[in-house]
Amino acid sequence: IEKRERNNMQPLSNFLFTTAGMGEEIFLTRHNYPFFITSKKHLQQIKSLEKSSFPEKRSDRFSTMISNIKSNQMEKDWLRAAWICPIHKEGGGEMQMINLGGTANNAIVIHLPWMSKFHCWFLIYGPQEVYNIDGGSTNGTFLNEARLETNEKKNLKSGDIMRFGSQLEFEFYFPQDLWPQLPNFKNLLPY
Q: Looking at the predicted structure, is the pLDDT value of residue 27 above 50?
């Protein structure tokens, strides 16, 4: 059985810890691929909320799981945390297709109830050419507040705001643009 490489979401605090003290040249050598990272706006919301007062209101429909106490707690935990995810496959070459969704057969897995099984995907044509395409998701893929139509291909630029459903918001960055932003993200961490 062939082993699949998988991009996992990782806690932003862990990523910042492993890159602390790293110079820009080393960072760019080790991380020569784009990322999405919990948006600064979402980090500010996390910082301002007490755990007990986290919003209970859900406006998304469940796509892949049935709502229950466990899934509701998992959703709250995800929304209270800061995440970063590389958009690449190890050994995948310069041109890549990376799919994102709520089930294990995706390269990037966000196992939340409102994520569609195959939510969206990224096309990478080179170091500075990345596109986001919605895969017919139930709750939508948004780029800079505009909902993408199914199979609509949008070019990504550093600083673009991507949202999956109504609450999970990220910023997209190429590595050379992420590097100077890392201190800003670190200062916004709620913990």
A: yes
